[in-house]
Predict the 3D structure of the following.
Amino acid sequence: MANLYARSPAEGLVPLAIGTLTLDERLPGRITSVAPYEGQEAATEQALQALGLGWPAPGTGLAGAVAACLWTGRGQAFLTGIAPEGLAGLAALTDQSDAWTVLTLTGPDARAALARLTPLDLRPAAFPEGAAQRSLLGHMSAILRHCGPDSFEVWVFRSMAATAVHELSVVMRSLAARAALT
């Protein structure tokens, strides 16, 4: 009989440090998709406020000490890091914890690297710190979150972890090679 053991989606693929960039994995803990029932939007907002967060505006995320609430589409957000206490009966709750890989791309060229893989406008005025958008990373569906001055989270489906690491590493090597020529 085979011995099974738990692995993170990007185990053995990261960390990578190439040029000015570092790619690593962040384990977000529990991830719950929250979709308020019709007429329960205000009550859902209040329940999230009781958890120290709130409902994120489109294209944004709210982060607390151990939890975050990221906008992921019209009428949907991801609550991460904590249990969805107080939300039962107010919103459709779906555990997404095993479905996603969260990669962190950090360094002064992070924005330039992502600009080669996503159609999003990543200029600081259009994608400020705290922004969270659902988009594409190459050919994959992704959620991009700007979480620090030179730091971005790249959320992809767990099954796409190796592909995302490959795509990002190709861009990282390209930027490092270009910098070496100047």
User: Anything to note?
Assistant: The first strand starts at residue 16 and ends at 18. The mean pLDDT is 95. The radius of gyration is 17 Å.
